[in-house]
Amino acid sequence: MKQLASFGPANRTARSEETHPLTWRLRDDGQPVWLDEYRQKNGYAALRKALAEMAQADIVQTVKESGLKGRGGAGFPTGVKWGLMPADESLNIRYLLCNADEMEPNTWKDRLLMEQLPHLLVEGMIISARALKAYRGYIFLRGEYVDAARNLNRAIDEAKAAGLLGKNILGSGFDFELFVHTGAGRYICGEETALINSLEGRRANPRAKPPFPAAVGVWGKPTCVNNVETLCNVPAIIGNGVDWYKSLARPGSEDHGSKLMGFSGKVKNPGIWELPFGITARELFEDYAGGMKDGYTLKCWQPGGAGTGFLLPEHLEAQMYAGGIAKVGTRMGTGLALAVDHTINMVSLLRNMEEFFARESCGWCTPCRDGLPWSVKTLRALERGQGTRQDLDILLRLVDFLGPGKTFCAHAPGAVEPLGAAIKYFRSEFEAGVAQASNAPPQLALTN
């Protein structure tokens, strides 16, 4: 995995504070940046500014004006989310949660930040907690991220010893405690209310909304949940200002700032790079990932995780921001793309994906609990060449039945989005699984 970040193919090694707010501090040897080095690289300067020069409302307003959006996949405006926290000062017990579960297949951007720049996340959380008037924070971390847990805990200890965490931070009168909480490894914990339930020691089922976490969150108190990469953007926004942050994106992009993007699969140079919103997918694929390996051709690609729809090579002209990817029919998601090569059978690929999504369903609502295993059963039959003529109709009905607004949370809609796209673009591969079973008895068909 490459950790190099750059804004231009002609100057891949040039990273600076002005152009690469997330990655300019990375070491060339891949080792973590600890407190002394982080401070030498202007670390915690934004925190000092936030505590000494800005009121709580000013921090919220600055983040709102910057246009920072959530980097976990949903893309909700961060400042707007912060503004949902109650203004009532009597509600003095508030929590800030960092969603570091990162269970999305083909996504490891948060891992890079936590393992190599743990103090960036710590600083981002302290500033954010000040804005939210939160006195305690939790980093809800995927349990398999052992190195990230170790590095984050060391960074927290270093920050405490330096007076950057705990009571009366930097003499400001602001108190904030921060803890790392490792989860058991469930995809559904990426949904913020399922994460809250898990943190409380409950089964990781999503909660009904409203009430939203800003009103009733952890242990019934006001709570804000933000993604790792989202929080890591906050110090640079506070330190450098709104106009600078907006200037990072390419013309035409409706999203501001930079984003960790990547490509994996049979590409010559798989990796992660910090890039401006609005860069084209073709630039990401060809100039950074190097195109396909010799002997392989690009069949299709996903723009940001297993829960995003497949796109064709001609869609590489799309700009990498939420609206740009929406124009070609899917979501940007996490921004870490997957290249599917010509040797991959789409039925087998989708069967593998749907097995994952079916296993990770919390089982709370019927469409997801029963529909996803049904899709796996149907895809297995097609994969073996034992499908029936009704199977494609069944799969398409499942795509509809499990779509947005028809399930308790967004798990099922994300699971069936790639399935619908795969049938749309590669229907013949699914039909091929029917040819050998034309005389087989039909499966039970779904009804409205």
From TrEMBL:
Residues 347-392 form the NADH-ubiquinone oxidoreductase 51kDa subunit iron-sulphur binding domain. GO terms for molecular function: oxidoreductase activity. It comes from the Bacteria. InterPro entries: NADH-UbQ_OxRdtase_51kDa_CS, NADH-UbQ_OxRdtase_suF, Nuo51_FMN-bd, Nuo51_FMN-bd_sf, Nuop51_4Fe4S-bd, Nuop51_4Fe4S-bd_sf. Keywords: 4Fe-4S, Flavoprotein, FMN, Iron, Iron-sulfur, Metal-binding, NAD, Oxidoreductase, Quinone, Translocase. NCBIfam families: nuoF_fam, PRK11278.1, PRK13596.1. This is NADH-quinone oxidoreductase subunit F. The gene is nuoF.
